[in-house]
Amino acid sequence: MATMWQKTMFYLGLVDEDQIQAAEEHAAANAIQPQAAVRTVETQRQPAVPATSGPDIRPPVQRTRGTVAGRRVEPPDRSRRRMSSNPVHAEAGVLVTSGEGNDRPEPSVSGDDYAEVITASKFSDAQQLADYLRGDRPVVLDLRHTEPAMVRRLVDFSSGLTYALDGTMRKIGQGVILVSPGGANLSVQELRRLADMGLYQAGDVS
User: Fold this and answer.
1) Residue among 179, 169, 107 at smallest CA distance from 138
2) Which residues partner with 177 through β-bridges?
3) In Å, how far from its chain's centre is CA 64?
4) 96 and 150 in one domain?
5) Do 138 and 169 touch, CB atoms closer than 8 A?
6) Which of 16, 97, 116, 200 is the most buried (most CB within 10 A)?
7) Mean pLDDT of the chain, nearest integer
8) CA 70 from chain center: how many Å?
9) Alpha carbon 12 to chain centroid distance?
10) Where are the extended beta strands (E) located within 61-133?
């Protein structure tokens, strides 16, 4: 329907009837188009899925044997396990594991070890001492003719070395120290030999 303004312009001869009709068709199209758009949007809406009120059920996490916190823990190979040579441990069924390629003999407790004797005069003798201890060999360190300053250095070195290798260090004579790896035990014959050399005095042992 033409508006009052369009009718007034037609009455004054400013527009013709065709222009008024075209304006009415355009207005009618604009009035219909929004409704169609609204209907299109409504048809595209998806119904909301109601949330379930039941408990949150998750599939159980499967854990394989020998895994802890994302890290796989392999049990020792049977071929690398052996019964401990310690009678107390063996009776309890204790197994020990040895590494491949770098097996170290267990410290002897039978009293059959003999000692290497080093008459120290310079600090470089400490290297020979360390080599013997790494080979599980007790060492008698003769410091009777060593300068006092060098004696302190060698004693400090020996103390740190025995601590690192879980060994022992003790005085067996005046100015003589026995440095031993863990578990070493000198036999009576070896102690007698050291006594004959003047390196072992039972009364001076502390």
Assistant:
1) 179
2) 141, 171
3) 20
4) no
5) no
6) 200
7) 70
8) 12
9) 99
10) 67-68, 71-72, 81-83, 95-97, 116-119
Structural domain includes residue 47 = no
Question: What is the total residue count of the chain?
Answer: 206
**Contact present, 150 and 137 (Cβ < 8 Å):** no
3-state DSSP assignment of residue 96: strand
Q: Are residues 120 and 190 in the same domain?
A: yes
The reply to whether 83 and 145 lie within a common domain is no
> Is 197 found in the same domain as 120?
yes
Q: Which residue has the tokens 């020792």?
A: 76
- pLDDT, one tens digit per residue, over 166-186 is 999 999 999 999 999 888 888
Contact 112, 184 (CB under 8 A): no
Global pTM reads: 0.44
Q: Which domain holds residue 142?
A: 116-204
178 or 88, higher pLDDT: 178
